[in-house]
């Protein structure tokens, strides 16, 4: 049986799934929403664009409310020299290597394209925190809450949410604005994130919160 929050009663009775409140100063991060995941025929194509449309609405709400928006994309040096074992483990990452014939697959989708004054972090691993300036950038801006959109739920979204709470930021994962190529890992990871690492919130609630006055 599950409770009102979707967690099993066994999880709840073990102390999982307690609520984290939004902080006073949120930012939105858009994880790897690049052509590789949304272009039919691409090796990494997810088969759906629902999360892309949802993320676009979250971004619009953040901009309306004066909330900072950051983006990530993946890029490697020639032959993935800076990708280490992760690059060797996931063969499709070769599409993001310098000189790849289909380099356009690494471009952020136009529906969620960053503005000139918005930061795009380049990463080589799953988490947006690992090997990047994200944590110091958020700390300098006095950010305390990280609203997470992007792909994939079971990979880079999960890794970023886990690192966010580890670095002291409240992770808010927007349910409709994250996606995966298989509903089973998607739902399983949303369950696990809500239980242990993050708040999984619906788009409508997040949009309403972000549209408010700047915090």
Structure summarized in a few sentences:
The chain is of the alpha/beta class. 35% of the residues lie in helices and 17% in strands.
Fold topology:
Elements: H1 9-13, E1 26-31, H2 35-38, H3 50-65, E2 69-74, H4 84-89, E3 120-123, H5 134-140, E4 145-151, H6 153-166, E5 170-179, H7 183-197, E6 199-201, H8 203-210
Parallel strand pairs: 1-2, 1-4, 2-3, 4-5, 5-6
Structure description:
The model has no long low-confidence stretch (mean pLDDT 93). The protein starts with 8 loop residues before the first helix and ends in a 5-residue tail after the last helix. The longest helix has 16 residues, at 50-65. The protein contains eight helices and six strands, in the order H-E-H-H-E-H-E-H-E-H-E-H-E-H. Strands 3-2-1-4-5-6 form a six-stranded parallel beta sheet, with helices on both faces. The protein is α/β, with parallel strands linked by helices and 215 residues long. Strand 4 (145-151), helix 6 and strand 5 (170-179) form a beta-alpha-beta unit.
